[in-house]
């Protein structure tokens, strides 16, 4: 469950980033100062449109890794009744995702500008319709809740904490009460900083937490962990209070091309990332989402955690050699 967005991707220049005060590698929510950004991006640069939104990207990648059967993942989110909404529906279908969108006509379908410079990407999300998801209008409906009950693993990106905390808590509590796996992503430093209260209301239900090094550092700072060591942060995050005592929390932090850190049980391990020739890197947008998708594709098949990490690394590798969160027809993953 998350924010379905249409990604508008373009390679831009430093002047463009400076004009809108964007950091080269960041993700933020659009405000009034970014109103003109979306139009200028489409006018001035060569843009590509991709079905996006972090959670939906991850589910799409998991499905791609699994291949058969289709529709292993069900997705909930809110879109507008407009052209972009139609594109998202079509792209979800093409990716064999069982998407059940809450459609409303007050707000247009959300978009995300992916401003690419070198191997950095600055994301500016204009949530619009994605921000209108309503628990009582969609999640609570019997035909939708039945799909929740049917699932074994739940994955929600931290971005959704800004939209519908009550929807996340309903799903998280269901997972906890039925000893099913609930996974969350820190998603962005701003989530750890400005939506800390929402995040910490959900954390006791989190069985598996994903994040990258900048998010982990921001989280550690907000939680007063008093360490900058990513392995230490993973350990301390793992030890935070948890409702379902049958499952110890697992924490996975990626660090770009540096080792991935995994805290599970009483050990914290690191997994090296195979180096990619910089000239093969097209665009790092979606690499983190792809890692999660690869990881989940093995997790739902009850593979060991080291194999989950390996699949995550593979998927991340494929994605950075493509533009946007797109991929070849089939994985050549063994």
UniProtKB/TrEMBL annotation:
Monomer. PANTHER family: ADENOSINE KINASE (PTHR45769). This is Adenosine kinase. It comes from Solea senegalensis. Belongs to the carbohydrate kinase PfkB family. GO terms for biological process: AMP salvage; purine nucleobase metabolic process; purine ribonucleoside salvage. The active site is at residue 289. ATP dependent phosphorylation of adenosine and other related nucleoside analogs to monophosphate derivatives. It is found in: Nucleus.
């Amino acid at each position: 469950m998350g924010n379905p967005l249409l990604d508008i991707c373009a390679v831009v220049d430093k002047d463009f980033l400076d004009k809108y005060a964007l950091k080269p590698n960041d993700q933020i929510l659009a405000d009034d100062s970014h109103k003109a950004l979306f139009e200028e991006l489409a006018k001035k640069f060569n843009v590509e449109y991709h079905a996006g939104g972090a959670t939906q990207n991850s589910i799409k990648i998991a499905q791609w890794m699994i291949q058969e059967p289709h529709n292993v993942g069900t997705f909930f989110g809110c879109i507008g009744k407009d052209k972009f909404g139609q594109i998202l529906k079509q792209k979800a279908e093409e990716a064999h995702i069982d998407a059940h969108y809450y459609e409303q006509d007050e707000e247009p379908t959300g978009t995300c500008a992916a401003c690419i410079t070198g191997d950095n990407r600055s994301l500016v999300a204009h949530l619009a319709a994605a921000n209108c998801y309503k628990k009582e209008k969609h999640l609570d409906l019997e035909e939708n809740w039945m799909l929740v009950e049917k699932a074994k693993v739940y994955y929600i990106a931290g971005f959704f904490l800004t939209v519908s905390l009550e929807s996340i808590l309903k799903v998280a509590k269901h997972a906890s009460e039925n000893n099913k796996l609930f996974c969350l992503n820190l998603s962005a430093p701003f989530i750890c900083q400005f939506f800390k209260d929402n995040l910490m209301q959900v954390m006791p239900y989190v069985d598996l937490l994903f994040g990258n090094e900048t998010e982990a550092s921001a989280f550690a700072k907000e939680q007063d962990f008093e360490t900058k060591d990513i392995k230490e942060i993973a350990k301390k995050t793992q030890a935070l209070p948890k409702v379902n005592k049958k499952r110890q929390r697992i924490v996975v932090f990626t660090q770009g091309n540096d080792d991935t850190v995994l805290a599970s049980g009483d050990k914290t391990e690191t997994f090296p990332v195979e180096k990619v020739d910089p000239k093969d890197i097209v665009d790092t947008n979606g690499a983190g989402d792809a890692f999660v998708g690869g990881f989940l594709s093995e997790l739902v098949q009850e593979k060991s955690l080291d194999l989950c990490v390996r699949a995550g690394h593979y998927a991340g590798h494929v994605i950075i050699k493509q533009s946007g969160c797109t991929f070849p027809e089939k994985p050549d993953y063994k």
